[in-house]
């Protein structure tokens, strides 16, 4: 029997010193499992709103549309893992993931499995520990798929328009190092540029151009954290005209310059927008 296989894209903790009161709407590219350790924040996934409490699980699927908001005085911390299904010959994993509630409370068993997953994943260079981390994640997903209480909530599936826009986002992600035009992206999903622009703004409250720019800035942030490339080299790789342009857009998006951002975090730390 061929067992399904998960590929862990990234795992980390989001506890930024500078965070907006409301994050822009974004399409989810991978499966996202988050453990919220905060009070007072609202998280919205596919129109389902949940007031975050300590502790709560948020689970989003590829194609979901999400954003969050918080009072200015709220301090928060989120552990997360992002993963994709690499193979699922019998569809077992896909069916399991569809049954997981979008929001549910963290009980002692979830906390225990999550802690073991983190412990093993920290030693992922050891193949045995990497296998154990994957097994703990499988066990956690199975348990969550079977947990359905009055406190849990399941988001509505994406609409046809939302699925088409998600495909446009995936196209943007695949060409993150290019300077795509709105026309090129619209053509990819069979929409006229004007209709695509109108529909995109209706769902995300921003333009395709601004969204693609936000994705490129997010990639710049990842490269600042995970590589030793200079800011000029990152700007060149992401097709910004120069380092100054990247710097001004980065500061507008995150409130600090690329250099300040890099100095605030260790090279191996992972952060993620929500």
How does the SSE layout of this entry go?
Blueprint: E1 5-14, E2 26-27, E3 31-37, E4 42-45, E5 48-51, E6 56-60, E7 65-69, E8 77-87, H1 92-98, E9 103-105, H2 108-121, H3 127-146, H4 160-174, H5 182-188, H6 193-204, H7 208-226, H8 231-237, H9 243-254, H10 258-264
Antiparallel strand pairs: 1-8, 2-7, 3-6, 3-8, 4-5, 4-7, 6-9
Helix pairs in contact: 2-3, 7-10, 8-9
Q: What would the keywords be for this entry?
A:
single chain, 274 residues, alpha+beta, four-stranded antiparallel beta sheet, 9 strands, 44% helix, disordered C terminus
Task: Write up what this structure looks like.
It is a single chain. The chain has 274 residues and is an alpha+beta fold. 44% of the residues lie in helices and 19% in strands. It is built from ten helices and nine strands. The protein has helices at residues 92-98, 108-121, 127-146, 160-174, 182-188, 193-204, 208-226, 231-237, 243-254, 258-264; strands at 5-14, 26-27, 31-37, 42-45, 48-51, 56-60, 65-69, 77-87, 103-105. The strands form two sheets. A five-stranded antiparallel sheet has the order 1-8-3-6-9, with no helix packed on it. Strands 2-7-4-5 form a four-stranded antiparallel sheet. A hairpin with a 2-residue loop joins strand 4 (42-45) and strand 5. Helix 2 packs antiparallel against helix 3 (127-146), helix 7 packs across helix 10 and helix 8 packs across helix 9. The longest helix is centred in the middle third of the chain and has 20 residues, at 127-146. It is globular, with a radius of gyration of 19 Å. The two termini are 37 Å apart. Mean pLDDT is 83; it is low at 267-274.
